[in-house]
Amino acid sequence: MPTPTTPAPTTTLTASDARRIALKAQGFLGAPDRRSGPRGILRHLGAVQLDTISVLARSHELVPYARLGAIGRRTIEDAYWTRTATGAPHAFEYWSHAACILPIEEWPHFAFRRRAYRARPHWNHQLPDGAYDQVIKQLRAEGPLTATDLGGAKKTSEWWDWSGTKVAVERALMYGEVVCVERRGWKRVYDLAERAVPAELLHDDLDDTECLRRLVRLAGQSLGVGTRADIADYHRLKAEQVDAVIADSGLVPVTVEGWGRPAWADPAALETPPRGRHRTTLLSPFDSLVWERARTERIFGFTHRLEAYVPRPKRVYGYFAMPVLAGGQLVGRVDPGREGRTLVARQVTLDGPRAVPAVAQALLEAATWVDCTNVRVERVDAPELRAPLLTELARALD
C-alpha cells in the first residue's frame, strides 16, 4: 500500500497565534480548572517530568503549582499517588519525555516501548543471574516494596552503582512486568503490574501503530501546535514513527509564519482564538512548556538551559535557573534557594524594566507557596534594576 500523504495546510498562523495556542494548550492562558486539580493538569499535559533536584520543590510539584498557584504540596503528592476508593491508581511512572508521571489510562499506549525494551540487545547495567526472578518472586510474596525493601538499591555510595536487585527491578519496570504507581517520600514503590494496573488497562495487545497514533495525537493536543520535531520530542518518539501516523492522528497541518518548517495543530485549538488571563509564575526548567530548547527559542525568543550539571565557573544564569512567565512571554530568570523561611534569589535576570513587577510577583507567590516569609535578592544581572526590584518586593511585603 502507498504511504498516505499529508494534505497541504489550509490554515496559516502568525507566530503570536502559535504562541497563544501553545500557552492555552499548556494551561497558562485562561482560567485554570481548579476543580480538577493536579490530576486534571496531569491528564491535560499527558506527562509530568520527574527529576531528583529539589530547590523550591521537586519538578513534579512545580508543574501544577505553575498553573494552579499556591496549591498545597501535600495535595499535589496525594493527587498523584492516592488511589481511588476501589484501589485503582490515578498515575504510573514510565519513560516518556524522560522519567515521567503519566495518567494510568495511557498504560496500554506504552506497550510499543515496553516491547522495544524487551528486545534491546544490551544494557548499561549487568543483570546478575537469578536476580530478576528473585525480585518478581519477592514482590509476588510480599506485596509492593521499595528497592530498599527488596535488599538495597546500591552497591556503593555512588549514585550510578546499582545493586543487582535495583538493576533487576528497574529492568522489570521497563519491561512492564513491574510498575510504580506510588512513592514513599522520594522512593519508588514497585508492584507487579498484574496486581496494580486495572484489569481493563493491563493488556498489551495494541500494536505499535495504534500506540504511536495515540501518543502523537496526545502530544499535538498538549502542545497545541508543533513541528514534527516538537511532537516527536514530547514522548521521545523517532521522527519516522511520527511520520508513519501523523496523517491519521487527528492533527491538522498548518503553516506558522516564521517557523520555516511544516507544523501540525490540534483542530480544537484552532476553533476559537485563545483568550483569557495569563499566568505569572516561575517555571521548572523541566516544565513541558520549556523542556525542548529549540521550541522555546522559536516560540519565545528565549534561550533556556539547565545548568545544574554545568561546572560552577561556567554557569551563566545559575544552578536551577527558573524562567519567569508573564503576559504570555518569558521575561527573565530566577535562580532560587531557601535559607530557613527566606526565599533567596541567588541570581536574577530581567528582560528590561517592564519585567520588574512580574518577577517580583512571581518571587512573592513562590515564597508564600513554600512557607517563606521573606525574599532576599543576592544578584541582579542588570545592576540598575536591582533597586526597582527591591522596591517592588518591599512594597508587596509591607
Summarize the structure.
The chain has about 400 residues and is of the alpha+beta class. About 35% of the residues lie in helices and about 20% in strands.
Task: Outline the structure in words.
The chain is of the alpha+beta class. The chain is built from 15 helices and 14 strands. The chain has helices at 15-25, 37-45, 59-68, 73-81, 111-118, 131-142, 147-150, 164-175, 193-196, 208-223, 228-234, 239-245, 293-300, 356-369, 386-397; strands at 11-13, 48-49, 91-95, 99-103, 178-184, 187-192, 225-227, 252-256, 263-265, 281-282, 322-326, 329-339, 342-350, 374-377. Strands 10-11-12-13-14 form a five-stranded mixed sheet, with helices on both faces. Strands 1-8-9-7 form a four-stranded mixed sheet. Strands 2-4-3 form a three-stranded antiparallel sheet. β11 and β12 form a beta hairpin. The relative contact order is 0.13. The mean pLDDT is 93.
